[in-house]
TrEMBL record:
PANTHER family: RETICULON-4, RETICULON-LIKE PROTEIN
Membrane topology classification: Multi-pass membrane protein
Transmembrane segment boundaries: 20-50
GO CC entries: endoplasmic reticulum membrane
Species per Swiss-Prot/TrEMBL record: Oryzias latipes (Japanese rice fish)
Protein name, entry field: Reticulon
Length: 93
């Protein structure tokens, strides 16, 4: 029931922030799908699946540093948006 419940929650806009994130992701994927062939996406996915772990092992400290910076920036922006828009406070998880 987990996945079905999550999809229901996103589609019925029970949490506005998650629903907006999902809508933006779907909008971006329409452009990716229009630009690439399905087989091309599978090939790129396989290449990334075998390349990313090796790159991460070699540059783990730098990648973790930049991921933490991006994560903090995203949390700040989401916090500011939630503070300004009424009804967007996150429920306690």
């Amino acid at each position: 029931f987990g996945t079905r419940g999550e999809l229901r929650r996103v589609f019925l806009v029970e949490d506005l922030v998650d629903s907006i994130k999902f809508a933006v992701l779907m909008w971006i994927l329409t452009y990716v799908g229009a630009f690439f062939n399905g087989l091309t996406l599978i090939i790129l996915g396989l290449i990334a699946a075998f390349t990313c772990p090796i790159v991460y092992e070699k540059h783990q400290a730098q990648i973790d540093h930049y991921v933490a910076l991006v994560n903090n920036q995203v949390k700040d922006v989401v916090g500011k948006i939630q503070a300004k828009v009424p009804g967007m406070k996150r429920k306690a998880e």
